[in-house]
Automatic annotation (TrEMBL):
Keywords for this protein: Isomerase
GO molecular function: isomerase activity
Highest classification ranks of the organism: Bacteria, Bacillati, Actinomycetota, Actinomycetes, Pseudonocardiales
Family annotation (NCBIfam families): maleylpyruvate isomerase family mycothiol-dependent enzyme (TIGR03083)
Record-given protein name: Maleylpyruvate isomerase family mycothiol-dependent enzyme
Residue intervals of the Mycothiol-dependent maleylpyruvate isomerase metal-binding domain: 13-85
Residue stretches spanning the membrane: none
Domain of life where this protein originates: Bacteria
InterPro entries, A to Z: DinB/YfiT-like, Maleyloyr_isom, MDMPI_metal-binding
Length: 219
């Protein structure tokens, strides 16, 4: 599967989803942001990818800056910028950045769906594609920090993160894993999943952006 068509399809779905909706609808998955803010972030994020500007990613300031700088823009402004910036990043889809772009857009698609009460496909190849780069990143971090290996059993097979023989197992779906490691679930929600082994061994390592959501989030 190539990355550009997956991204383009998600962008089309998001556009259809939010057109005609109140752009100020709060998006609980991204506290403090509205529907318009999420689209502005997607547009501004592409510009930052094109410019290789990634300061503040782990602290959250990366996305907050994009939203803050576009606070006075309309939803249509955000869509226009998204179109323009997508043209700038086309060469990146066939580089290691391509899976990151896919992960970003799929995560925010489901953020918007939760806010608008319109669930989407949680079992398709898009969700699995959105896990490719995050799982690579978590695997590398666990190896570098000597976190015991963990087997993750998903609907399409197993994946081992970390070095050596796994000492625990997490059984979940691709969608729930995407949401858990992407900051859309609290630590308590993740610990309540189907585990063999003590989840506290891996709970910190499973925070892709360095932190889990403070409060539970259901969707």
């Amino acid at each position: 599967m190539t990355n550009a068509p997956v991204y383009d399809a998600a962008k089309t779905r998001i556009t259809s989803l939010v057109e005609g909706r109140d752009p100020q609808t709060p998006v609980a998955a991204t506290p403090g942001w509205s529907v318009k803010d999420v689209v502005a972030h997607l547009a501004g994020g592409l510009r930052d990818f094109a410019d290789r500007r990634f300061d503040g990613v782990e602290s959250g300031e990366w996305g907050e800056r994009q939203v803050r700088d576009r606070r006075d823009n309309s939803l249509q402004d955000a869509f226009a910028e998204w179109d323009a910036n997508l043209a700038l990043v086309q060469p990146l889809f066939d580089t290691p950045m391509g899976p990151i772009l896919v992960s970003e857009v799929i995560a925010h698609e489901h953020d918007l769906r939760a806010a608008l009460g319109v669930p989407g496909d949680r079992d398709g190849v898009e969700v699995r594609a959105a896990l490719v780069r995050p799982l690579q990143e978590l695997d590398q971090r666990m190896r570098e920090n000597d976190v015991p290996a963990l087997r993750i059993t998903l609907e399409h097979g197993d994946r081992v993160l970390g070095h050596g023989e796994p000492v625990g197992t997490l059984r979940t779906t691709s969608f729930e894993l995407m949401r858990a490691i992407g900051g859309r679930r609290s630590a308590d929600q993740i610990k309540a999943m189907d585990w063999d082994g003590d989840p506290d061994t891996w709970i910190a390592a499973l925070a892709l952006f360095g932190r889990h959501r403070p409060e539970p989030f259901e969707e």
